[in-house]
Write a structure and sequence with these properties.
about 150 residues, mainly beta
Length: about 150
């Protein structure tokens, strides 16, 4: 399958991505687990601490893709710089987070969905991941301070 990538930073510039969705879906593991985290919110809405970090994020549906960057990320989801297109709000998403690891890039693969549908949103939640993607993402947070909870 070849998809056109819509790059939110370079509107009008399209690139193609050769992407095999079925093998990735077969590699998805159980949902992301959060150990030893106590939710600081009075409503009990947070299941993971959030970290301010800008990472490249590529989001795919069966037929379309969208490229943006994160504002903040947790082990359970991300706040994105740009709103998702409307057609992304009501379907399962394959999410690729590109993590710079020294001189090379690592691609972390997740299954998720948009948060806040059916209206447009810039939030996604992770529901499952390909083996080791969750631990790789948590490794990204190792030297970062979590965002404070503001009531």
């Amino acid at each position: 399958m070849r998809l056109k990538l819509v790059d939110s930073e370079n509107v009008g510039i399209e690139t193609t991505l050769s992407y095999q969705q079925d093998p990735l879906r077969q590699m998805l593991s159980s949902p992301i687990k959060m150990e030893d985290y106590t939710d600081p919110t009075p409503q009990g809405r947070r299941i993971a601490p959030r970290f301010t970090i800008e990472l490249e994020v590529i989001i795919l549906t069966q037929t379309k893709s969208f490229r943006t960057r994160s504002i903040n990320v947790s082990a359970s989801g991300a706040l994105l710089k740009d709103e998702l297109p409307e057609e992304f709000m009501t379907t399962s998403l394959d999410i690729i987070i590109v993590r710079q690891a020294g001189e090379s890039k690592k691609r972390l693969l997740f299954r998720g969905k948009a948060v806040g549908g059916p209206s447009r949103s810039c939030r996604i939640t992770f529901q499952a991941c390909v083996k080791d993607s969750d631990s790789e993402l948590k490794e990204t947070f190792r030297d970062l301070e979590p965002l404070p909870f503001i009531s």
